[in-house]
Structure formats: structure tokens, C-alpha cells
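Input sequence (570 aa), recorded before submission:
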Amino acid sequence: MNHEDQSRILLLGSEPRVAVRHTSEQHNTVIYGSPTLPSSNLTDPKILDRLARAPIVFLPQLDGEFVVVTETADFLYVASDRFASHPIFYSVDDDKLVISFEYQSMWNWLARHNKLIPDSAAFYEFLHFQRLFHETTLDTKSNFLSPATLLTINKSTGFAESKRYWLPSFEKQDRDREETADALASAVKSSIKTKTADSSKVSLLLSGGMDSRVALGGFTGMTQPHCLSVGEFENNEVDVAKSLAALTNAEHSFIPRSTSHYSEVLPKAVTTGGGMYSYQHGHFFDLDIPPTDLLLHGHGFDYFFQGMYLPSTRKKLLGRNTRSWSLAPVDSNVVSHYTNEAKYRLKGIDPTLLLTSEAQAEIRTRIADDLHSTLAPIENATGDAFDKWDYLTTSAPSRHYTYLNLLSAGTLAEQRTIAFTNDILDIYYSTPADVRHGTQLLAETIKSLNPELLTIRNANTNLRPDLSPTRLTIEGVLRGLKRRTGLSGQHSADPSAEDRSWPTDDMIASGSSSIQDRISNLANSEAIESLGIFDSSKIRNLIDNSNQGKTSGASALLSLLTIEEFLSTT
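Predicted structure, C-alpha cell format:
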């Protein structure tokens, strides 16, 4: 951004990739990321002039992953894409707009200028959900810029206004699963073609599951990417990924991860994530990968098109669990139901029990307010409870609890998300919940892209990825019978935790003496105590009970460790 004295925009920290930078007498404009404008040249000064004159009209035409920052004689503008794919934080300070792509820089700037007021309730919201909602940050003076939002500041009056320039349509298309899969397959191929157009060395993070398999299938008929799989050793998931790459004649590399990875990356993971993501999701920091100028991956396809976080119940047969799940109804009070049952919320304990009794009621109210604020833009747009439930999860993908995956990958090379295009998002919103719940839609999409990819087992089950829930149940029973009769062969059971790419929270918490030492000291943390809402004796009980195996507290302890690290190093 323009850093001349007359500029009223102060950019903190580093910038992501600059796609367009234009200066004229009328405006200074910078577009970050990898935007596209169908049928037009985004570097055309006439196009940029139109964007500066009427951003609320022009922004809906932009596609891809971007942030737009514009300064005119009268106004300051900042706009996010429909995914908020480049998280940006802002604070209006007297006559300046302070912005940062790194929350840590914003927090530090506020502290240096004696403006920092930590938001204790936000720290608990992070602990409860493993993420934050709406515009919430960890302080009371800055905000997160929501998706598809134009922030406008009048330079004369200082008045700041945030306005959505696009909202999803929840009108469902009359398509069956096969038709939806064909539409999605076409959109995936188009996205890959667009996102790789300016790259010569493309890499794909490839696992043995469904989402990155969709991404690999999208390269059918194109130059194949260099596939990368990560692990401490070449386990079952790596074997599956190798087979997938070989099937498509793509080059494959196994990238070893240090056995001490999760203790070594703690400071960097917390700093990069700004304390807003539990640090153990920083899987890709400090890896030694082959030279590349672009990293792609399958992020987003799981929560968009497998309905992973929709409420569901497991079906039973003769009193035993099957591999079939059915959608469960959403309560009339969506916010309350979501607060208690969101699938990615903190597991193992009730985190409210870590709060002081005085803080509990206020914190519950605050969380409800944040969730209601998230839903507010679409409150009258849909009456479908599943739409509202999923919108809480997917309305701002960069706030998803696993997004540190992508932020860590972005430290190795530029990363772009195939699922983050307007067409794919439209398909998601127009597909009924029952069609996108489960693995069948992605399996049908892979069939449309490259059916041979379905011949390789799913690393999550060691069974074909296109089996129906009924067939999965039957095959699972047959495998069990074979094991009991001594007739089982290779891959005759679901993979163990060691056969997966990422360790469990229990494995991370117990696998490093340095992490164990840090966890043991959490009850004495002055940083956590400074928030004024946590009861240190309850944290001590959690640590003791976790050490004795009385409760599964690893996830809570790692999130508390994230909070402690963030507060202690800022």
C-alpha cells in the first residue's frame, strides 16, 4: 500500500501476494491475492477506476481469493472476497485506518500505543469452539473483516461502515446427486485451470481421503501436479496417496515430518495464527518440500460437500453401530443447539467448567450474541434450519478451526484453495443438505472427473471410496468375520491413528516432554490468570485428571497452551 505521509491507511506487518497495484490522481488501489474478473483484464486502469468509483457495484463481479484496498480523495475502502480467504483485521484510529493481514501485528500495535484491551470472552469462545465468529478478535479495539464485505471510511467525518456486497442464495436447484456431481466436477476443473494459469511448478498436497482426491481428479486432461504427502513415516495414508499419484502419472514425494514437529513449531504456529487457531493444526511449518511456486490442496470440499458438520445420528442394526448416518433435526433455537452440539467444538470436557462461577453467565450470553450476529445477514434469506446450521460453520472459511493448515502451507509457497471460487460456493449453497451429507456426492464427483481414482481404497476406511453406507457396513462386518477366523489379509481393518497423516491431540500432548512440561504449568500461568475468567484450580484438576486418564483433556489443554503462548509472547 502507499506509505506516503498523506496516506490515511497504515498497513502493519507483511503483505500477501500483490496481484494489482495502481496509482492515479483519483485513487491508489492494491488488490492482494489471486483475483479474477471473467472476460476482463483486472489490470486495465479503466476497470480499476470503475472499482474505485463504485466498489459496491463492481465487487460482486470479482472471483477468487483477494482483498482490495483503495484510497480516494474522500474515502478509504477495504473489501474481502466471499471466503475471507486472506484474513484481514482493522481498527479505526483517529484519522487513520489501521489494517493487518497478521493479527499478531495488530495486537502488538495496539499494545505499543496503549490501546490494547484484551477481550476475555473471545478467548473463551476460541476455547469452546476452537475458532472465533463474526467480527470478533481477541481484543475490543479491532475487528475481523467478514466475507464479501466492503468497509468504507469517510475521510472527512471518520465514519466507518461495513456492508455486505454479496449474500448467498439458498434456493435449491432441482438436480439429483449425479447432476450435482457433474456441475461440481466442471467447476473444479475450471477452478484448477484458472488458479494454475500463472504457475509453472504446481504442487498438490495429497492425502488418501476424498477431498484431495477430488483435487487430483480435477487435473484430468491437464499437466499433472507434483503430489506431496506428509507424515513421520510412510504410513497407510502415504501408500494410498502414492497409488493415486501413480495412477495419474503424477510425480509424488513423501515429506517427512520431525518427531518433535509439534513442540518445535509452537511459537511460530501461535504467531502465524494470531492465537485464533489451536496451534497443533500448523502441520506444514518448516517442511522441506521440492521447489514449487504454487501449493494446491483439497481444503473445503469436506465441509462443503460431505456435510461433515451437519447434525447427524448413527444408525444401528440389531443394536450395533452401522456405517450409515442420518441427518438429525435442528432445534428451533439454532444458536443454543449449535453451541452445545457443533461437531468441532471442544471435546472431552465441558469447557464452561473451567470458568469462574461469576464469568459463566456473561460468557454464555456473549457467545450467543456472536452466533446471532453471524446469522443476521441471512436471517430472512432461508427458513431451512440446516442452511443456518451450516452457515455458522462455513460462512467465513478462514475462521474454520483447521485454517492454520493453510496458513502454515502458505509459509512454504503461495497456496490457493481450489474450492474457493464463486461457482463452487454457489453449488454448495444450492445443494440440499441430504444430497451433500456423506461421501457419496464427492465419490460421484470423482467418478465424473476420473473414475479410475475410485479403484484405490480410501485411507480413512481401507475400503473403496464409492461404497454406499450400506455396503460399507456389510464390508466392515465381513472384514471382522475374516479377522476372527484368521482369513484376513492386508488392509483388513480401519486404519489406526498411526496410519493417518496427522497425530491425535492425545498423541501430541503426551508425545513431547517439553509440551508436557508446558501443560503442567498451565494452572500457574499468569497470562491465563490475567484474563480474569478462568479458575486456576479447575485447570489444575483438568491437568491431573488428564494425566491419570480420567478424562480426555488433551484438546482443551492444547488450546489453553495456545492461549498461554499467545499472551506470554506478545
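Checked by second reader. Residues 177-195 form the longest helix (19 residues).
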